[in-house]
Amino acid sequence: MGEHFKGRPRRPDGLIAELIAQLTDEEAPFKAHLDAVILEWLPPDSDRLGNTHFDMSRTELEVRRKHRMPPGQVTIGLHPRLAEDEALYTHTLAHELLHAAGLTDHDPRHASLVNLIAPAPTLAESEVLRSLRDQALASQEQQDWTCDHCGFIWVRKTVRAPSRCPKCARPFK
Description:
Elements: H1 15-22, E1 38-41, E2 50-54, H2 58-66, E3 74-78, H3 86-101, H4 108-117, H5 127-138, E4 144-146, E5 153-155
Parallel strand pairs: 1-3
Antiparallel strand pairs: 2-3, 4-5
């Protein structure tokens, strides 16, 4: 595993400053408290790459957001596999830090900020993403599709079903 798995997860230099610079006080009422967020590794068998945990109910969190009060203790858990992939680690941490800052919804603004600050690596660039894709594919019931028009059998290589036959280009049904 990567070097930062030996202890607690680390904050890449400048990441929090970049997040704070991109966020408004209205959308991110907890941004001033990002330095106090606790980082820890998730269990190796976790089914998530990351998660953000506030030590209070959703209702109390909304009250604190509305009145611009501190968020209390916030913990971000990161999957140990991220130690193998610096770009995916930074992307996942940026995603979770946005939640910790107060952007708790997965909306277009959240997605655009993550992609601006720490874009995700492509499948070609990330062994971890390829491994996760392979695990997802292995768990799927349908392992191939047969084209009703030309009979071509397309062995599943993606999580999503293809819209067209790769041989005759007619829509799959």
